[in-house]
C-alpha cells in the first residue's frame, strides 16, 4: 500500500451532514406532554424473559416499555396495524436522527410511506448521553440477534434469539405460520441497549445497559400500530447474547389512552408525498 502525499489533507476534509433535519416537521411536544397528563391505562402485556409478545396501539394512544425486575434490553418491531408492508425503517431513522434515539425523535416507516410511526415522549435514560467509549442507549444500529448469524459464528440451533422470538410472537398474534411471519420481521429499535462502535476497528460493541427496574421508554402512536417486543436473551448485554447464560428478566408493555380533547389539534401523518413516478 502506498500512502499518497496528500493523505493528511484528504483526511482533514470536514464532514457534511447527509440529511439536515431542520425542515423535518417537528412533533408538538408541548401538546404531547399535555396529553400525557390525561392518560388512562387501557392494556398491558408482560414480555417473558428470553421470549417475545405482540401488542396493538391505536393511533393517538401512548405505549411504554418498562424494566420491571432487573436490567434487561428489548428488541422492538413496529408495523402499520392495517398494512404490514409498512414497517419500522431503522436505517432511515438512523440517517435522520443518529445512531441512538431519545425524547422528541421519531421512528420512521419504510418506503413508500416514509412517515413517523411513533414519537418518543419520555425516556428515563435520557441522562446517559454518550459515554467515554462512545456508547449510548436505544440504538438503531444493531439488526437483532438471530439464529442464522449464531449458526454461522458458533454453530448449533438456538431458537430464542430475538429474530426467532419476534417471529413466534407475530405468528401467534396473527394466527399464521412461522414461515409466513418471518419475512415481516425487520431491523429493530434496541430498547435500553447500550452500544457504539470501537474507535480503533469500528466494530459494533455492546456493554452493560444502565437500565434499572422502573426505567421506562414511552412512545406516542402516530398511526395504528402493531408491535412486537423481544426480551433479549442477552439480558443487559454485558457479556453474551444468543445464549442461555445471561440473567434475563421480563419487560412490561403498557398502553394508554389520553383525553381526546388534549389531541384535538393533532392528525395522523399522511404517507410521504412523493408521486412514485420515478421520472417514468
In short:
By secondary structure, this protein is of the alpha+beta class.
Task: Describe what you observe in this structure.
With 280 residues, the protein is α+β, with helices and mostly antiparallel strands. It has one domain (43-249). It is 16% helix and 29% strand. It has helices at residues 7-11, 29-36, 90-97, 147-154, 162-174, 178-181; strands spanning 40-47, 52-57, 62-67, 74-80, 83-87, 106-108, 116-123, 136-139, 189-197, 204-207, 216-221, 225-231, 251-257.
Instruction: Quickly count the domains.
Output: 1
Distance between the first and last residues' Cα: 45 Å
Counting helices, strands and paired strands, the structural category is alpha+beta
SSE order = HHEEEEEHEEEHHHEEEEE
Largest sheet: 7 strands, antiparallel
Tally the beta strands: 13
The unreliable regions are: none
Total helices: the number is 6
Radius of gyration: 20 Å
Share of helix among residues?
10-25%
Look at the structure and give the mean pLDDT: 96
Beta content:
25-35%
What layout of secondary structure does this protein have?
Blueprint: H1 7-11, H2 29-36, E1 40-47, E2 52-57, E3 62-67, E4 74-80, E5 83-87, H3 90-97, E6 106-108, E7 116-123, E8 136-139, H4 147-154, H5 162-174, H6 178-181, E9 189-197, E10 204-207, E11 216-221, E12 225-231, E13 251-257
Antiparallel strand pairs: 1-13, 2-12, 3-11, 3-13, 4-5, 4-9, 4-12, 6-7, 7-11, 8-9, 9-10
